[in-house]
Specification:
A three-stranded antiparallel β-sheet has the order 1-2-3. It has one domain: Factor Xa Inhibitor, CATH 4.10.410. The longest helix has 9 residues. By secondary structure, it is α+β, with helices and mostly antiparallel strands. It contains three helices and three strands.
């Protein structure tokens, strides 16, 4: 059976930490920034982690 390829879309959006958590940037910081409040844009700067079954799915797509 051949190796599983890394999903290129997932490769660009998610990264794995040393402990194995899946890290991602919050969506919504691309455009229409004049509509959003300062506090909302500030909160979008911080990244976040994915937990549970979703993180397992992303790890499979990352072929890790």
């Amino acid at each position: 059976m051949p190796k599983q390829k890394t999903h290129s879309g997932v490769k660009k959006r998610f990264s794995l930490t040393a402990t194995g958590k899946v890290k991602f940037a919050r969506p919504g910081k691309g455009h229409f920034l004049t509509v959003k409040t300062k506090s909302r844009k500030r909160k979008l700067r911080k990244g976040s982690y994915i937990a549970g079954k979703n993180s397992q799915n992303i790890k499979t797509l990352l072929a890790k």
